[in-house]
Amino acid sequence: MGLSPIAGRRALLVGNPNSGKTTLFNRLSGARAKVGNYPGVTVDRRVASVMFDDRTEIELVDLPGTYSLQPRSEDEAIASSEIRNANPGNDVVVCVVDATALSRALYLAVQVRELGLPVVIALNMMDLVKLDQVSLDPERLSEALGIVVVPISANRNEGVDVLKAQLQQTFGAYTISTYEKIQYPLGLAEQARAQQLTSMGIDDAEAVVSARFRFIDACIERARSSPENRRRTFTDRIDGVLTHPVWGLLVFLVVMFAMFEALFSWSEPLIGAVESAIAALQGWILQSFPAGALTELVANGIVAGVGNVLVFAPQILLLFLFIAFLEDTGYLARVAFVIDRVMRAIGLDGRAFVPLLSSFACAVPAIMATRTMENRRDRMIVMLSLPLISCSARLPIFVLIVATIFSGTARIFHVFSPAAVALFALYLLSIAVTLFVAALLRRTLFRGAPAPFVLELPRYRMPNGVSLWLSAWYRLRSFLVDAGTIILAMTIILWALLNYPKNHEVEQQYQAAIAQAEITDASEAARLRDERDSQRLQHSAAGKIGHAIEPVLKPLGFDWRIGVGILGSFAAREVFVSTLGIVFGTGDADENDQSLRTALNKATWPDGSRLITPLSGICLMVFFLLACQCMSTIAVVKRETMSWKWPAFLFSYMTLLAYVVTLLVYQVGRMMSWGIA
Amino acid sequence: MDLSDFSGIGIVFAHVNDIHYQLQMQGGTSPSDSSSTGPTTCALSEVPVGKEARIVGLHGEHGLRLRLMELGLLCGTEVTVVRTAPLGDPIELLLRGYRLSIRIADASTVEVRV
Fold first, then answer.
1. ipTM greater than 0.85, yes or no?
2. Which residues in chain A have their CB less than 8 angstroms from residue B86's CB?
3. Residue A132 vs residue A348, higher pLDDT
4. CB atoms within 10 A of CB B17
5. Residue A307 and residue A487: Cα distance in Å, rounded?
6. Which one of B1, B2, B3 makes the best mutation probe of the A interface by having the most chain A beta carbons within 10 Å?
7. Which of B9, B65, B95 to mutate to test the interface with A (most CBs of A within 10 A)?
8. Closest CB from B71, B97, B102 relative to A228
9. Predicted confidence band at A598 (pLDDT cuts at 50, 70, 90)?
10. Which of A107, A182, A218 minimises the CB distance to B6?
């Protein structure tokens, strides 16, 4: 009885983590998924439409992996509530069961069935079962369980067509008349049983768990004619090396170094390419269209904003390709297994390692990577403390300041360059503060008994290239769309603050002078242009704010010009350098620009004392180490927590921390007369 | 296959109910009962690597106990300690055909007979 496409018919795909659920989803949907979000949390909701041979169409929903309908994590809670709220008139649950871990996997399927929902079991990884020489009869399993079982191998695309045909049949047969039949008053039965047991002093939840497993074990016994595989498998042999006390640690270090290298170095040419493409586009727009506010808005506001978003694409893609590769091969779980001991010492578990390591390159992909952590509290703690880790965007600032304040300083003990010592100390400080804040968050905002650390170590498998790209692409797309809009809007606001209002006197004065100089002396024209840009900035809203906040910054050793730089650096920390370049009239500089260093060294307070002393330079670095001068971090925390509360908290505490620590360093330093000459 | 397949659910629950009644007649499954039956029990964390053991009791707090049970660590389940992590903790277990890693502190709440 073929039905015309009916809206609201859904196949809900559930399964344990590592059950191959996502691969099956990609196979069934032809990799054309829409990725949305569950309200209030940041777990991806993938939906695709699947068309059957008779042209009827259903919606396929990929739920987060879970072991049970009694949720232990955010992801599991979603899967659980979506199943519990499923509509028995429209929905069919497809339970992906890992045939190599049969009893554990069937536990979820049985729980789903108890809710009275129609279930189809996709018995996955049948290829591995055959490889293990275990004889398992899907039909007898189906009879014993009373649930339809379709043997498949999603990785090898075997049996997926049969599954699809089975789904078509299930939905097709699923009419109003038969709908009555499958309603099962289990909710009541379970309640009654629970009451009965509680009255006898038996923990109902545990008794129910045991009962389910006894039932499952009995069913498996009927379907399996050979015992569970206990032979030394391929996975055992690999793990003999990869979790070996010596080789295991070595491989771990090499793999993590490769990941870090990918984020730090391999991404660099790609980032450079994005930056030059954006710069070329800006140049073309400024040249081809009549000069004016609109052209500037498009080039320096909108296009620059798009550039600020796209610049993260290489790192996000690389990190998530790497994570997907580690996850799909099975090594990501071993990373957590190997390093858990160390992470436990700082109150976290092994899963926190990859996000924390990534944050040395950039907090944005690192915050996105916290999704691999299953405990919500741990995830929040890591997300809110890792922006304190010194990322690669802080380096240009450190390089500029260190080169400015330590030029010509003698080596310490004739061996160490003061610049290297300062950089090393900054990294140490950043790690110490991160750990301190993480510990503090655990004792204050995210208190509570730690969730037990249980980690499945899946079998090693060859990853599927398409799946890797898809999972990285879905992550990137969600960043571009959600965080991207916020970053774009903030770029435009910042651009307006730094450029408006315009001062007519300044414009007129320089317009004539530059036009004059361009004919006679090109270098003089360039100097005048830099001077004009500096004047423009001084008269802009940002310049005025810089002046206004100088009394607040002065106790830190900063004047209004540095204040303007701090404002500008909110776009991205490294922008501090180029903003300073404009304020000090040396043009759009980078951190290796000698004229900017000279200008900084010569800069003075109105009373003639030097602005950038070794002490104030160190204060500047400490400030940038601790302050949340990065709108993209704010945007991505908003994206991941789905609220403005946490990004606001992050920005406030980091700014306050940066201010207080810098104030202490500067005031104590002055009292001790350190480095003020 | 038509929808009569789904009527199989009746059998499922008949089964589950049976098992429950069995449990009740045996006087419950309190882990401490079985732990007192043999002198050779120890904590799962003390089982040497490569040895197989049978779970006889779960003594952790409720949340941990339930989580371990849902992952298949029940009284009567056979568990092999496969290895310890390079830094000494956690440990890797083989049970019900799959590998699970738990911390030594949690493993010490699981009573086993080797």
1. no
2. 243-246, 248-249, 252, 338
3. A348
4. 14
5. 10
6. B3
7. B9
8. B97
9. confident
10. A182
pLDDT digits (tens, 9 = 90+) for A195-214: 555 555 445 677 778 888 88
| Residue in B with minimal Cα distance to A119 | B6
Q: What is the pLDDT of residues A154-183, one digit of tens each?
A: 888 899 999 999 888 888 765 433 333 333
**B90–chain A nearest CA distance, Å:** 7
Tokens of A228: 């569970």
Indicate the residue of B15, B71, B87 with minimum beta-carbon distance to A104: B71
Query: Which of A214, A235, A242 should be substituted to probe chain B, the one whose Cβ sees the most B Cβ atoms within 10 Å?
Result: A214
Contact at 8 Å (CB) between A328 and A463? yes
Contact A341, A391 (CB under 8 A): no
Distance CA A293, CA B110 (A): 71
Collect all residues with Cβ–Cβ distance below 8 Å to A218 and sequence separation of at least 6: A144, B15
User: Hey, what amino acid is at A257?
Assistant: F
d(CA B101, CA A70): 20
Mean pLDDT of the residues in chain A: 85
| Helix runs in A41-149, H state only | 74-84, 102-114, 126-131, 138-145
Band the pLDDT of A42: cuts 50, 70, 90.
Answer: low
Q: What phi, psi does B66 have (nearest 5°)? A: -65, -40
Please give the pLDDT value at position A296.
87
Predicted confidence band at A134 (pLDDT cuts at 50, 70, 90)?
A: confident
The DSSP bridge partners found for residue A60 are A11, A48
Give chain A's length.
677
Question: Cβ contacts of residue A346 below 8 Å, gap of 6+?
Answer: A435, A438, A439
SS3 call for A189: helix
Please judge whether B96 and A101 are an interchain contact, meaning their C-beta atoms are less than 8 angstroms apart.
Answer: yes
What pLDDT shows up at residue A451?
74
Contact criterion met (CB < 8 Å) for A181 and B4: yes
Tokens found for residue B42: 């120890």
